[in-house]
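Name: GntR family transcriptional regulator
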Amino acid sequence: MRRHEIIEAIRVKILTHDLRPGESVPEEALAEEFSVSRTPIREALAALEVLGFVTIEANKGARVSVYSIDGIRQFFEAAEPIYLSVYRIATERRTESDLEMLEKVLTIIETLTPDGDVHSRIMAYRAYMNSLAGIAANPFLISVTDRLIDYHIFLRRGIVDTLTSSELRRAAQVNYDHYRLINDGVLAADAEAVCAAVIERLRSSKTFLLENLL
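Structure predicted for GntR family transcriptional regulator:
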């Protein structure tokens, strides 16, 4: 496996809680799974530490990062202006083929919303948000947005495990409704509507995270 593939594979394990917050990252097991030596695993973990997904301690190895109130607040402080820039540009640049692709992904999310497994829903939301960032076609914004998207998923995934089935279904429906509003704005080429929906989405998510952590 190439370096970026190893980074992505470990990142997905963290996002889906195959590796949970606070857990030690099993370098040897990952090296065996990916058929590589421990050196590329350590290089991947160093890259993931920069992204905030793991913490590496001397002579102790890497652990999956844990959540903090300050971390959540800092994330949303950075996320709102960047998301607004990306989604505004995407709304202005989207093509008919882009709209078809976004609608297909949103349809998948809709089918997963009532009772779909969490892993599939996470990956579908990730695909939708990354698709919007790709439509913006700004490599600087795409890079930072990719990091924000995954960290947002990382934060929410930790709360999801604490919810009851009914709470999980309700949260999934709220998420879907927000993304439907965003998509409707993109479809109508209405950047102001998209930005309003993004702000509502982020503020709702921030409240959800803080209420469930406090």
